[in-house]
Design brief:
By secondary structure, this protein is an alpha/beta fold. It has eight helices and six strands, in the order H-H-H-E-H-E-E-E-H-E-H-E-H-H. The C terminus is likely disordered.
């Protein structure tokens, strides 16, 4: 599994400043952190060709480290491999059972298919909170209550970094948006410091997520 490194994360700050998405990132993280779903009620789905494994792993880590079982995601998959363990065998039918108190988080590096958009629209009509990180899909962005549209600047890498920042900042919660913003700034400040020449010795020995 690939990981986000400090060099990539440090390079994300200029994108926040130039693209004007910082407020969207803060809002998304804060909303996720305060969403009313209980344990098992955070549904995470990607596109047919791209499952959000990294985001799921980051959220699972933050759930354990912060004693926040509500941030443990349920990965919803388009295809279930034979022999998949139960926690990796949740299919699209789960979206048809979404409840008002649940959250659907959609990650779409490319445009969402009609099938995905229909399922997201149905989940919203049923009362689910819809969040998304996407690469310029206006229809998906329009369905989401909170979304981050990641500019096309090394899209996949930046999209993964947005997911990492959101997962690390979400435990702050909507009631403490300042706390969420502070967590993001601390994370990026740390990355920027470690990126400076000599700040962490040899590049190969820098910590990676």
């Amino acid at each position: 599994m690939g990981r986000v490194n400090y060099d990539e994360l440090a390079a994300f700050r200029p994108l926040l400043d130039s693209a004007g998405i910082e407020e969207d990132v803060v809002n998304l993280a804060a909303t996720l952190g305060s969403a009313p779903h209980g344990s098992g009620g955070l549904l995470l789905v990607g596109t047919e060709s791209d499952e959000p494994w990294h985001f799921a792993a980051h959220l699972a880590d933050e759930s354990r480290w912060n004693a926040r079982p509500d941030l443990e995601p349920t990965l919803v998959r388009w295809q279930i491999p034979v022999g998949a363990p139960p926690h990796l065998a949740v299919g699209l039918e789960r979206l048809e059972q979404v409840r008002r108190s649940e959250t659907l988080f959609v990650v779409a590096p490319t445009h969402a298919s009609e099938g995905l958009l229909e399922r997201v629209a149905d989940a919203r009509r049923l009362g689910a909170l819809v969040l998304s990180v996407h690469g310029g899909d206006r229809e998906l962005g329009g369905l989401a209550h909170e979304a981050v549209d990641v500019p096309d600047a090394g899209l996949l890498s930046y999209l993964e970094i947005v997911q990492h920042v959101v997962s690390q900042s979400a435990p702050g919660g909507m009631a403490r948006r300042r706390s969420v913003r502070a967590r993001i700034n601390r994370l990026l400040d740390t990355a920027q410091g470690l990126r400076a020449p000599g700040a962490y010795g040899d590049r190969a020995n820098r910590p990676r997520w």
